[in-house]
Amino acid sequence: MKKLLILCAVILLVLLPVAAVVGCQQQPAPATPTPTPTPAEPTIPAHFTTYTDEAGLFGISYPPDWEPALSLIEDLEEATKELLESIESDLPLERASFIFFAGVPTEVGYDPNVNIVVESLPGVIWTHDKVVEAGIRGIKDVVQDYHEFSRIKTTIGGREATIVDWEGTFPELGTFHELQMFMLVGKVVWTVTCGTGPEKFSDFEDDFHAIVRSLRIFK
C-alpha cells in the first residue's frame, strides 16, 4: 500500500502548480516557448469510457481498461503532503482540491494514470496565460531537470486551454513524463494531468492527448 501511495503521490505532485498560482501572482513571467495554436477540436475516441461526477459538474473520458480510484484521493493527498514536507516545500497544497483519479491498476499503484484538480483563485484579475506561467513555475519549484517538449494553446470543450508536455525528476523518487492541461473557467483553474515513466510515455501518448482533450465542464 505504501508503494501505491508513493507512486500515485509522485504523479499527483504535478498538481501543485495550481496551488502555487496564489503565491506567484506578483512575480514576472520568465521567457518560455511560444504556445502553438491548433485547429478544430478532435473527437473523443468512441471506445473510451466516460465518467461524469454525481453533481453533473464535469465529465472526462479514458481508455476502457483504466479504472477510477476516487476512494484513494484522501490517502493520496496525505501522501503528497508527506512528500512535500520531505523536500521542505512550502507550497500550499490545502488550496487544491483533488476531484478525480483513474488509471491502470498495477501491483504498485496506478500506472499510467490521470488526475484532475481544481482551485478557486483569489479576487484579483487572472488571465489564462498567467495561470499557465504560474503553473510552470510551480512545477519547477518541485522537480529537478525540468524539460518542456511542447506547449500547445488550443480549445477544449469550447474553452481556452493549454497543454504542456514535460519531463522532470522528483527528488529521491525518479523521473516522470507528464502531459498537463490548464484551463481557467471564471475564477477556477482546472488542471488535468496524465503521467507515467519516460520509458513508457510514447506507448500512451496518444491516449494521454485524447484524455486531457476529453474534459467537459457542464456548469
Short description, anyone?
The protein has helices at 2-12, 16-20, 73-86, 128-142, 201-213, and strands at residues 36-37, 49-52, 58-62, 67-68, 97-106, 109-120, 144-156, 159-170, 174-185, 188-196, 216-217. The chain is α+β, with helices and mostly antiparallel strands and 219 residues long. It has one domain (2-217): Mog1/PsbP, alpha/beta/alpha sandwich (Protein Transport Mog1p, Chain A, 3-Layer(aba) Sandwich).
Q: What's the CATH architecture name?
A: 3-Layer(aba) Sandwich
The CATH class is Alpha Beta
Tell me, briefly, the overall form. Answer: globular
Strand line-up in the sheet with most strands: 1-7-8-9-10-6-5-4
Annotation field: number of helices:
5
Task: Say how many strands there are.
Answer: 11
Order of helices and strands: HHEEEEHEEHEEEEHE
CATH topology: Protein Transport Mog1p, Chain A
Low-confidence stretches: 1-7, 9-29
Largest sheet: 8 strands, mixed
Helical content, roughly? 25-40%
Q: Kindly name the structural category.
A: alpha+beta
Distance between the termini: 36 Å
Number of domains: 1
What percentage of the residues does DSSP assign to strands (E)? 35-45%
Q: Radius of gyration over alpha carbons?
A: 16 Å
CATH superfamily: Mog1/PsbP, alpha/beta/alpha sandwich
- Quaternary structure: single chain
- Provide mean pLDDT, rounded: 79
